[in-house]
Specification:
The complex is a heterodimer of chains A (about 800) and B (about 160). Chain A is α+β, with helices and mostly antiparallel strands and about 800 residues long. Chain A is built from 23 helices and 29 strands. The radius of gyration of chain B is 16 Å and the shape is globular. Chain B has 2 domains: about 80 residues, Roll (Ubiquitin-like (UB roll)); about 70 residues, Orthogonal Bundle (DNA polymerase, domain 1), CATH 1.10.150. The chains are: A alpha+beta (about 800), B alpha+beta (about 160).
């Protein structure tokens, strides 16, 4: 790097510093959970249900247990006798969630038993010898049908409904009375997909019989949440559960909810006398029974607009499908409201939100979690209204965007958008794509019968959430605020070592944390070690620690910054004592003997080794008034939140609001109906940028996930709950050949809510899904098509254009113009 | 029954080193590399030949080692990610991936490095289209491929421009 270590200017933050993580990963020396092999380790394989909904008549494990090399088998009955059901986040929940199906199975792939063997291949053989007898029950895979309660998943609950609440703000009735036009949209549907991290779930667990501790090496991405669930479930003191992660091969939120498998592995280890037990998920297991993103249906939407096409009110009924067990849900029933009005200015709205279980894989917080569904809905509303009113898509947005001068902007439900400039982003994006030229090309192409559309998607990536929003779904929930921990120390020989409570999966935390500390201490990031992965025994985690929900740049780096500042203050005091001067005479720099502290007046200095020596191994020279100095500084950063008003569903739910604006040009081939992206622009605003290529990489990655989801990736089920996309060959994750080249742009509106001006980012708000839906509708609106679903491929476009079965504007949308 | 499975002798050269083992005939090449030789740089992502995290070079051709039985590699020469560096120095392809931010979590990276190695061994200046085709069998879920294209172009430049 060009920056001279020891220079006075603090400059590491903002630089394109090469990633510290790179060297080991490039050499094949990364340490992923499946790379770990322990002495006397046994291997676990699950036995899973082929049915989506069935009663378990009997489970016979005798043949499996008789196989040479089999250690033991485990069934649901055994687990129930040793554990409590998992914590339910919802109010008065009667759902009894165990890591195995006990009396009935509720989705295809649900575990019913497990076998443990001396090798992975013996465990595979043994699993096939477990005989399970089922009595098939009526499956329900559609959310609206599920709410009819004709076939109930959790009999104890008496209903499939998990949660319902009405979010109403402003004066909706008056807005509709005053409207110049009203648009009715019968149904929109956001499909089920998963960001499918390339590394499957892996758990190694050891329930040590000597010290009665449970030791995990795994790839869970929100360990402090997992241990809260595991402690209560296994009746084990939370401090006796150690969770370590190392390199993680992607999570995108999906690995938050692998705690049920963690429980099974611990119980299997206990049964095996404390031997370590390893479970490595197969891809098919991952696809059928890990976690999927939330599926959501939007019914009976009514939109009030004034004579200029400005939206004044929206009412709608939203039905969220959480699969067979709520697990992290019903948090998603409120998390969407972090972005209640999206990027738009309307003040009046009523959303009736319901969540239901169905006989499908349970959902988990997938990249863009719960907000992307709602943001997609709002972008559909904008484009459908624009097309029906004959207002160009860009103009429609300009009329409805929150204006740059309105920040910080308080939304109708009390969220405070910190900063942003949506019109500015639109301008940058239009320039990058060549908006006017594409408009001309589009007109010419249409004359020749080609179907080309240009779509805009504006989205938000809300980060650092206020867990107090859990009290909106459950007034008794004991959660609020948000926090993160970090530790910064001078070790015995003067090395700077940093530990954070985050749990990274490729986001470059080691690099960006080092940049922050380098600026505080005025040394090169090369001199700073940031520990890899997460470990409960580092004691830097809080109850919110993990890596999820676009927050590291705010919560993680604020904690790191706080810890580094504390260390700096201690170093200064100690150096002043040794160098016989005052604290404010001390400066930080690098000298002949490495990083040091200098007295400006005398020029005398002491290096890091000298300071660390005094505190750690030469403490007789330390005067008693300095005994509080440890050079080992832990700092807990807390987000300045209040508990939201539960009755009104009102309050600030998130600290920062990064935004993205994408434009896509998409052509639908008239013969094959294959949608092809002709041009694509992504513009990002996440405030002050810590490391530009890392941010750019996150934008690209989220864009690929979004394009994949929009065109290729769909967790499809048939009518009886068979999962049709249980391998990658069926699910077809986006590849290098169907990923377009992305033109990248960015603006920066620094956040007033974070110390550095940075905003959390990384999830991307599913901008491509909004954008591609918009472009497809633009291409096909003149053919009577509106885009009804977030997933569109050649098959669905054929059914829309030729079969006229779906997406028919005349059936789905009604425009009511009122006389003024 | 597992104890009756007859083990088969296998001789293979991996990263320039000769190995001889007796293995179950059903053992996959990727399992052999990871479990028998402890070369854990080669990863498993999909089990079904889609994602390419397990890509290794076998007798000069990139293969997906999750779909090759270890016994099929008898007498073969295998190159894995661990064999790319020389005397501790990164291979130019590895360096280019680092310089171009061509990785995030790093799980797919070993397979991509091997696919790139094979591409550049017969095509010194691949076009974007040729690069896409060469890595079509390597799934990356983090990078959106943008910086992987840049990394491969950079690797090609560095190799031929030197």
């Amino acid at each position: 790097m060009a920056i001279k270590p020891g220079s006075e200017e603090k400059k590491w933050v903002g630089q394109a510093l090469p990633r510290k993580e790179e060297d080991r990963l490039l050499r094949g020396r990364g340490r992923f959970a499946d790379d770990i092999k322990l002495r006397d380790m046994a291997y676990l394989r699950f036995v899973r249900s082929p049915y989506a909904h069935a009663r378990i008549i009997s489970i016979d494990t005798s043949a499996a247990e008789a196989l040479a090399g089999v250690v033991s088998a485990l069934t649901g009955k055994e687990i129930v006798s040793q554990t409590q059901p998992f914590i339910e986040i919802g109010p008065d929940s009667k759902v009894r969630d165990y890591p195995f199906a006990v009396s009935k199975v509720r989705y295809q792939g649900e575990p019913v038993a497990a076998v443990v063997a001396e090798s992975a291949s013996i465990a595979d053989d043994a699993a096939e010898l477990v005989h399970v007898e089922y009595e098939a029950l009526e499956p329900v895979v559609d959310a609206e049908q599920a709410l009819e309660d004709k076939s109930i998943l959790h009999e104890e609950s008496g209903t499939n409904k998990i949660w319902n609440g009405v979010f109403e703000y402003g004066d909706v009735e008056k807005a509709f009375q005053d409207a110049a036009s009203v648009v009715h949209i019968d149904r929109l549907h956001f499909h089920r997909f998963s960001s499918t991290p390339l590394e499957n779930n892996v758990v190694i667990g050891e329930w040590n019989q000597k010290d009665d501790h449970i030791y995990y090496s795994c790839n869970n991405s929100f360990p402090s949440f997992a241990i809260q669930f595991l402690s209560a479930h296994l009746n084990v003191h939370i401090d006796r559960i150690r969770v370590q992660t190392s390199d993680i091969g992607g999570s995108f939120g999906i690995k938050i909810t692998n705690y049920p498998q963690m429980a099974v592995v611990a119980l299997a280890s206990k049964k095996a006398g404390g031997r370590p037990v390893k479970w490595v998920e197969t891809r098919s297991e991952h696809m059928t029974s890990s976690a999927h993103g939330n599926e959501r249906t939007f019914r009976d939407t009514r939109v009030a607009l004034d004579k200029n096409g400005v939206i004044t009110a929206i009412t709608s009924r939203h039905i969220d499908d959480c699969g067979a067990y709520p697990r992290y849900e019903p948090l998603g029933c409120v998390i969407w409201s972090q972005v209640f009005p999206g990027v738009y200015r309307f003040k009046n709205a009523r959303i009736d939100f319901t969540q239901t279980v169905t006989n499908k894989c349970p959902v988990g917080p997938n990249r863009g979690y719960s907000r992307m569904q709602h943001l997609w809905f709002l972008e559909r509303v904008i484009d459908i209204c624009a097309h029906h009113l004959g207002i160009p898509a860009d103009e429609m947005r300009m009329r409805n965007y929150i204006r740059p001068e309105e920040f910080p902007y308080t939304t109708p439900n009390g969220c405070v958008y910190d900063s942003g400039n949506y019109p500015g982003m639109l301008e940058v994006a239009k320039q990058l794509i060549g908006w006017d030229e594409w408009k001309k090309k589009q007109d010419e192409a249409r004359k020749r019968g080609r179907l080309i559309g240009i779509g805009i998607g504006t989205t938000l990536d809300s980060g650092t959430n206020n867990f107090g929003q859990s009290q909106i779904v459950n007034p008794g929930a004991p959660f609020s605020g948000n926090s993160q921990g970090a530790n910064c120390k001078l070790d015995i020989y003067g090395e700077v070592v940093v530990a954070v409570g985050s749990c990274p999966q490729g986001q470059g935390h080691e690099t960006t944390a080092a940049q922050v500390v380098a600026d505080v201490l005025n040394i090169s990031p090369d001199l700073i070690t940031v520990r890899t992965g997460f470990d409960t025994e580092r004691n830097v985690h809080t109850g919110f620690s993990g890596t999820y929900a676009s927050q590291f740049a705010v919560s993680g780096l604020s904690a790191v910054h706080g810890a580094a500042q504390k260390l700096k203050t201690e170093m200064k005091r100690l150096a002043a004592l040794v160098l016989e001067t005052k604290d404010d005479d001390i400066e930080f720099g690098v000298g002949a003997q490495g990083p040091e502290l200098r007295a400006k007046t005398t020029g005398k200095s002491i290096n890091y080794w000298g300071l660390a020596n005094i505190v750690n191994v030469n403490s007789a020279v330390l005067p008693a008034e300095m005994y509080d100095i440890t050079l080992n500084c832990r700092y807990i950063w807390r987000a300045p939140f209040k508990v939201p008003d539960k009755q009104r569903k009102y309050g600030n739910l998130t600290l920062t609001y990064a935004s993205q604006l994408h434009i896509a040009v998409v052509e639908v081939d008239c013969e094959t109906f294959i949608p092809v992206i002709l041009d694509y622009v992504a513009v990002d605003d996440c405030g002050t940028v810590i490391n530009p290529p890392i941010v750019e990489g996150q934008v690209y990655g989220a864009t690929a996930h979004g394009i994949g989801a929009a065109l290729l990736e769909n967790c499809a089920y048939d009518a009886v709950g068979n999962m049709l996309t249980s391998t990658f060959s069926d699910y077809t994750p986006i590849t290098a050949v169907n990923m377009p080249k992305i033109k990248y742009g960015h603006i920066q509106t620094p956040s007033p809510h974070s110390y550095s001006g940075a905003k959390g980012m990384g999830e991307g708000g599913a901008a491509p899904i909004h954008t591609i839906s918009a472009a497809l509708q633009d291409a096909l609106f003149s053919n009577g098509i509106i885009i009804e679903d977030s997933f569109n491929n050649a098959d669905s476009l054929f059914r829309a254009l030729v079969g006229k079965e779906i997406c028919q504007a005349e059936k789905l949308v009604k425009l009511e113009r009122r006389a003024s | 029954m597992p104890e009756t499975i007859e083990k088969i002798p296998l001789k293979v050269n991996v990263n320039g080193k000769a190995y001889a083992r007796n293995i179950e005939p059903r053992m996959l090449l990727v399992e052999f590399l990871r479990e028998e030789l402890d070369l854990t740089g080669t990863h498993v992502g999909c089990d079904t030949t889609y994602c390419g995290a397990c890509t290794v070079l076998m007798n000069g051709a990139a293969v997906k080692s999750c779909t090759v039985f270890a016994v099929q590699a008898d007498d073969a020469e295998i190159l894995t990610v661990e064999g790319l560096e020389k005397d501790g120095q990164l291979h130019p392809i590895q360096k280019a991936f680092g310089d171009a931010y061509g990785l995030q979590c790093g799980y797919c990276t070993p397979g991509l490095l091997i696919s790139t190695y094979q591409l550049l061994s017969h095509n010194k200046q691949p076009s974007a289209k040729e690069i896409g085709k060469a890595i079509a069998g390597n799934t990356c879920r983090c990078t959106g491929y943008q910086n992987i294209f840049k990394a491969i172009q950079l690797a090609a430049q560095n190799k031929t421009g030197a």
